[in-house]
């Protein structure tokens, strides 16, 4: 969707933008430094009718609201997940052993993205929600928080609304808003024990947060979870040798590579639970123990911006009109092909071919760096008051 | 039975403690969003809606299910008013997701579109579209009225010339039974519980006049009750109009004081404090 929206820039302007972004240090149209985010306004707890909600406004005017709603749902009986519905037959020892097995299922989270003017089954919208939920479910730990007992679980509905028209690729905005909404999400305190039908405390003030934070102790049920907070998905792009964070629409139009990198955080001992996919940075040195959850390439619009064509090969300018005999025509075409493949100063040429592995590695490295952008973003989000 | 009608006749108080002719708290803001041409946020009780207006602009490629009930298409002499409503899944008590093709939403869209197209001076903007997108964040009755009010405010903020405010309100009647005819009171501004229980209608009027721009009644109601309900509704619309007007004026004064806009001619007599 939004990655391929139209940018009304001429090939010459695109070339200029590309050139200024490839300088060292890059010069961005809005004067930001390469790792600087757009300023934003954030608030949480705006909708009392939800379990958690958040709103973020970026400085360019794009605005998103996320509401989280939870419902109790009966866990489906599965062969590897014996239900208690057929009680009596099972012996007590067996029950006690299984009691502490906390399991999660990806079906327990449902995420929808609404972008005004786009259908909800639009490929771009579906891709966005897939990317966001993928990051959330990547380590399989999030759904464990929704476990109530062996017969019931919470079903979490995340509704993501983009209020403004999509002026820039909304992924970072939606991801940050979702992050805050999940941080602000509270579930009623469980009063019943074991596998009884769940009974909850009426007192909303006693409701624990879904993600318990170090400052606040409210959760009785401590689930062993390595991520202390929901993931954040950042948009990173590379132009030439420069790595640029949080690109605007115009900048994204000239990107060589654009990546959506989802980052989570470790807490406590990570050595006990090694997962295959994490690329750990050195622990305990920085503020956050970051870990990579997922990486997606985003098709940058530069693949869709038409390249500038020299007049010689442009049929609208009578490129082939003068060439009568086929010999001459052939020669001209040959010429046109060389001019097309060569880089000409000041003429936009869409990058061809895939991203280089080294560039990808550098992008991911840059995100996970100690004291890097992801660290900064998480710090900034810590500053938002959750009520 | 959420609304105990016998209790109403005892104290003449409704479930939320209002009298028959009282509105809920209306809180509104305009210019809430920098990127749009016009925007507004409106609360009527616990019903909360946001509106974003873009345009009048050249009609882009048509995407999604926008309902262009009012005005003509992109090639006509009048601007098209395209309304798009998103009802958030978290807006009601139980999460209920509505698809875009939902008939109820389509009807709301075309009602709002036609009402605004009649009030906006669409003939000034030929071959163009006014995109109104409405987001429902929380629902507690009087949804259509809240949407119309929010859309009016956003259109005012966008600076689209219009005849007057289209202010909307709901009205209902306390009794559903014909036998209890004398005791039935009309009610102003229904909440969700009352809407479930009692007959009601949504009415929108143009400015201060008694001219009805929208009248939607989706429930069975005796003809004898209709007149009383309508009278109460129209009266409520005038109150709503006053509130909307105050919001616009306050914002306007604030913008002049902050220097965002220049003081126009003829504004000198306006009190700026």
Q: How many distinct folded domains of chain A?
A: 1
Structural class of chain A: alpha+beta
Give a count of the beta strands of chain B, DSSP E runs of length 2 or more: 10
Instruction: Sum up the overall morphology of chain B in one term.
Output: globular
Structural class of chain B: alpha+beta
CATH class of chain A: Alpha Beta
The CATH topology label of chain B is Ribosomal Protein S5, domain 2
Mean pLDDT of chain A: 77
Helices and strands of chain B, in N-to-C order? Answer: HEEEEEHEHEEHEEH
Mean pLDDT score of chain B: 85
Q: Report how far the terminal alpha carbons of chain B are from each other.
A: 49 Å
Oligomeric nature of the chains: heterodimer
Which sheet architecture does the biggest sheet of chain A show? Answer: 5 strands, mixed
Largest sheet of chain B: 6 strands, mixed
Could you explain the architecture of this structure?
The complex is a heterodimer of chains A (387) and B (273). Chain A is of the alpha+beta class and 387 residues long. Chain A contains eight helices and nine strands. Chain A has a single domain, classed as Ribosomal Protein S5, domain 2, CATH 3.30.230.70. A five-stranded mixed sheet of chain A has the order 1-2-3-5-4. Chain A is elongated. Residues 82-98, 216-227 and 269-286 of chain A have low confidence and may be disordered. Chain B has 273 residues and is of the alpha+beta class. Chain B has a single domain, classed as GHMP Kinase, N-terminal domain (Ribosomal Protein S5, domain 2, 2-Layer Sandwich), CATH 3.30.230. In chain B, 30% of the residues lie in helices and 25% in strands. Chain B has helices at 5-11, 103-119, 143-158, 192-197, 223-258; strands spanning 26-30, 38-44, 47-57, 67-70, 80-87, 129-138, 166-173, 186-188, 200-206, 212-217. In chain B, the strands form two sheets. A six-stranded mixed sheet of chain B has the order 1-2-3-6-5-4. Chain B is globular, with a radius of gyration of 19 Å. The model of chain B is unreliable at 63-74 (pLDDT under 50). Classes of the chains: A alpha+beta (387), B alpha+beta (273).
């Amino acid at each position: 969707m939004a990655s391929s929206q139209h940018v009304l820039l001429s090939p010459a302007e695109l070339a200029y933008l590309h050139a200024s972004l490839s300088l060292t240090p890059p010069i961005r149209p809005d004067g930001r430094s390469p790792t600087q985010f757009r300023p934003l306004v954030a608030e949480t707890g705006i909708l009392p009718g939800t379990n958690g909600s958040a709103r973020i406004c970026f400085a360019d005017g794009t605005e998103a609201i996320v509401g989280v709603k939870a419902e109790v749902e009966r866990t489906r009986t599965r062969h590897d997940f014996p239900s208690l519905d057929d009680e009596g037959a099972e012996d007590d020892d067996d029950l006690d052993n299984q009691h502490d097995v906390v399991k999660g299922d990806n079906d327990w989270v449902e995420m929808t993205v609404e972008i005004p003017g786009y259908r909800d089954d639009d490929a771009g919208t579906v891709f966005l929600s897939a990317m966001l939920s993928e990051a959330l479910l990547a380590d399989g730990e999030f759904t464990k928080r929704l476990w109530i007992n062996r017969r019931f679980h919470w079903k979490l509905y995340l509704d993501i609304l983009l209020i403004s028209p999509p002026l820039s690729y909304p992924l970072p905005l939606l991801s940050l808003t979702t992050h805050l909404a999940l941080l602000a999400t509270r579930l009623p305190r469980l009063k019943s024990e074991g596998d009884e039908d769940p009974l909850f405390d009426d007192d909303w003030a006693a409701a624990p947060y879904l993600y318990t934070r170090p400052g606040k102790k409210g959760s009785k049920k401590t689930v062993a979870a390595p991520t202390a907070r929901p993931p954040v998905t950042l948009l990173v792009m590379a132009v030439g040798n420069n790595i640029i964070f949080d690109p605007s629409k115009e900048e994204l139009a000239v990107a060589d590579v654009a990546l959506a990198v989802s980052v989570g955080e470790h807490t406590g001992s990570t050595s006990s639970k090694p997962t295959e996919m994490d690329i750990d940075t050195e622990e305990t040195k920085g503020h956050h123990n970051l870990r990579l959850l997922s990486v997606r390439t985003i098709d940058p619009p530069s693949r869709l911006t038409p390249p500038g064509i020299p007049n010689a090969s442009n049929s609208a300018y009578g490129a082939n009109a003068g060439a009568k005999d086929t010999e001459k025509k052939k020669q001209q075409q040959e010429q046109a092909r060389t001019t097309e493949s060569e880089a000409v100063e000041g003429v936009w040429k869409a990058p061809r071919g895939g991203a280089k592995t080294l560039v990808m590695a550098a992008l991911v490295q840059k995100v996970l760096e100690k004291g890097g952008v992801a660290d900064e973003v998480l710090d900034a989000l810590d500053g938002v008051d959750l009520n | 039975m959420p609304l105990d009608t016998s209790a109403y006749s005892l104290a003449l108080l409704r479930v939320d403690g209002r009298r028959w002719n009282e509105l809920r708290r209306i809180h509104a803001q305009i210019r809430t969003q920098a990127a749009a041409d016009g925007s507004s946020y409106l609360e009527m009780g616990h019903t909360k809606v946001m509106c974003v207006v873009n345009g009048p602009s050249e009609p882009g490629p048509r995407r999604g299910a926008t309902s262009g009930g009012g005005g003509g298409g992109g090639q006509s002499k009048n601007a098209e008013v395209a309304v798009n409503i998103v009802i958030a899944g978290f807006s009601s008590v139980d999460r209920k997701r509505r698809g875009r093709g939902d008939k109820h939403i389509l009807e709301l869209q075309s009602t709002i579109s036609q009402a605004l197209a009649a009030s906006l001076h669409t003939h000034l903007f030929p071959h163009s579209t006014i995109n109104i997108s409405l987001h429902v964040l929380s629902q507690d009755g009087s949804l259509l009225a809240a949407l119309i009010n929010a859309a009016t405010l956003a259109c005012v903020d966008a600076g689209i010339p219009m005849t007057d405010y289209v202010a909307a309100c709901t009205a209902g009647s306390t009794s559903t039974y014909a036998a209890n005819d004398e005791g039935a009171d009309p009610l102003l501004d229904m909440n969700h519980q009352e809407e479930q229980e009692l007959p009601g209608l949504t009415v929108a009027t143009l400015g201060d006049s008694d001219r009805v721009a929208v009248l939607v009644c989706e429930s069975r109601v005796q003809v004898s009750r209709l007149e009383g309900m309508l009278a109460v509704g129209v009266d409520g619309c005038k109150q709503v109009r006053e509130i909307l007007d105050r919001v616009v004026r306050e914002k306007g004064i604030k913008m002049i004081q902050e220097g965002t806009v220049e003081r126009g001619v003829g504004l000198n007599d306006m009190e700026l404090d």
